[in-house]
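Lab intake sheet, docking and co-folding queue.

SAMPLE TYPE: protein with bound small molecule
LIGAND NAME: zinc ion
LIGAND FORMAT: SMILES
REQUESTED OUTPUT: full 3D complex as structure tokens
PRIORITY: normal
SUBMITTED BY: R.K., bench team

The fields below were copied directly from the construct record.
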Amino acid sequence: MNQAEYFKQYYEENKNEINQKCRDYYNEQKAKVLKKQAEYRLFNWHKIKEKNLHYYDKVREKWAKERWDLRQKVLERLGNKCSRCGFDDWRTLQIDHVKNDGYIERKQLHWRKLYNLILSLPEDELKKNYQLLCANCNWIKKYEEASKPF
Ligand SMILES: [Zn+2]
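RESULT FIELD (auto-filled):
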């Protein structure tokens, strides 16, 4: 019997015991690792918190940039100026739903979906449904709509 055969036979005869030992060893190591992790968390929670905050800052930054880029495209597609008075300072420009159901739509559509919708609409659909208004004209429109007799 060569060495390999001997080990094979030894294994076959002591299978249960060997497997149990392996399992025990594994569980022991696992317990050690978990304990180490728990200790690390306990003593370094501030580090972990900082790391997480940093991570979320990055995600937020990325989203803000995406939103900004998409908004620039939307403003450009809608003409980059107020469709009533022509005011063109982008800081005041708001997307207005021509048919006045913008409130409902905003509730239903996430900004990403709304922006993508506006970017993908054909020109005539777009003109029918969306326009840019400056903040002043938007408020004026709201008052006008509110004072209309029903
Ligand atoms: Zn205006």
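REVIEWER NOTE: Residues 44-147 form one domain.
SIGN-OFF: pending second check by T.M.
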